[in-house]
Write a structure and sequence with these properties.
By secondary structure, the protein is mostly helical. It folds into 2 domains: about 90 residues, no CATH class; about 50 residues. It is built from 5 helices and no strands. The longest helix has about 40 residues. It is elongated, with a radius of gyration of 25 Å.
Length: about 140
């Protein structure tokens, strides 16, 4: 039980760190470096963005819509390709789909079907235990 708790905390740490905290830190870092290396060194830009907070406001209001547009483009065009490549390189999924085809075509033996069914039950049981298990701490 203690191992499960520790592993969940480790997963939560990595998720919080990589998805949220590092995102915020790298975004802030990018803005500060961009301001320092470009805005402060180009006189007419420094006159426009004399204060850092003005630059941050304008940058964020311009950057967020651009990032949303790029993200929407990626979702519409690239995710299909990424998922296809992940599927083509996943022997676990290939075995499952092959077994389903064999079952549909009645080429799978009763033992193969029972083994496949038990395999899926174990995954479901483990998933249910993990999903419904409450953290005690």
């Amino acid at each position: 039980m203690e191992t499960v708790w520790f592993r969940r905390r480790w997963f939560d740490f990595r998720l919080g760190h990589s998805v949220y905290l590092i995102f915020l830190l790298s975004f802030s870092n990018f803005i500060l470096i961009f301001h320092r290396l470009l805005i402060e060194r180009v006189e007419f830009l420094d006159n426009i963005f004399s204060e850092l907070w003005i630059f941050v406001l304008i940058f964020v209001f311009a950057y967020i819509p651009i990032a949303i547009g790029v993200g929407a483009w990626h979702r519409r065009t690239q995710i299909k390709i990424e998922n296809e490549q992940a599927l083509l390189n996943n022997p676990f999924m290939a075995r499952n789909f092959r077994m389903l085809i064999d079952i549909i075509q009645e080429r799978a033996s009763k033992e193969d079907i029972d083994e496949f069914r038990e395999f899926l039950r174990k995954i479901e049981k483990k998933s249910d235990e993990t999903f419904f298990e409450k953290d005690t701490n």
